């Protein structure tokens, strides 16, 4: 377990060495700890150095997530789209997938989240916004994806 800038920076480097890899596809702060800003700063620097392909957080509440997004450059395109369409980032992603005719099976036991998951048909992403989300896909896979999983470039 690492928390704070120095411990996280060292932990990333040590983990890469132990795994024999040049980068990790994803690294998250699993839950809020004592120094989330320092921890996220280490993640962002590793992302910018190419050691991490994606970074993020898990189990953060709205205020904690707001603190991260207010202090760092590496935040999702989805946040901008959510503000533009006055919906949540989850709703934007669900709408993106349904507009692309990709089957979605969201999971929630929270009635408010279930209602939000259904409430995605009162807006449509523009072609430009669809392209912004599509551009997040780095089209990189370790291996073994069936050809049927490859998406066309056409919308």
TrEMBL record:
It comes from the Bacteria. GO terms for molecular function: oxidoreductase activity, acting on the CH-OH group of donors, NAD or NADP as acceptor. Pfam families: Aldo_ket_red (PF00248). InterPro entries: AKR, NAD(P)_OxRdtase_dom_sf, NADP_OxRdtase_dom. Residues 67-137 form the NADP-dependent oxidoreductase domain. Keywords: NADP, Oxidoreductase. Belongs to the aldo/keto reductase family. This is 2,5-didehydrogluconate reductase. It comes from Limosilactobacillus fermentum. The lineage of its organism: Bacteria, Bacillati, Bacillota, Bacilli, Lactobacillales.
């Amino acid at each position: 377990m690492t928390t704070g800038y120095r411990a996280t920076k060292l932990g990333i480097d040590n983990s890469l060495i132990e795994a024999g890899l040049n980068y990790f596809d994803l690294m998250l702060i699993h839950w809020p700890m004592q120094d989330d800003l320092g921890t996220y700063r280490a993640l962002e620097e590793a992302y910018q150095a190419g050691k991490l392909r994606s970074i993020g957080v898990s189990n953060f509440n709205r205020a904690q997530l707001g603190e991260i997004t207010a202090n760092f450059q590496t935040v999702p395109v989805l946040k901008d789209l959510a503000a533009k369409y006055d919906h949540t980032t989850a709703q934007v992603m669900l709408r993106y997938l349904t507009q692309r005719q990709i089957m979605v099976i969201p999971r929630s036991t929270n009635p408010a989240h279930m209602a939000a998951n259904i409430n995605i048909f009162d807006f449509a992403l523009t072609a430009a916004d669809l392209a912004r989300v599509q551009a997040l896909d780095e089209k990189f896979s370790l291996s073994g994806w069936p050809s049927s999983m490859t998406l066309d470039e056409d919308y």
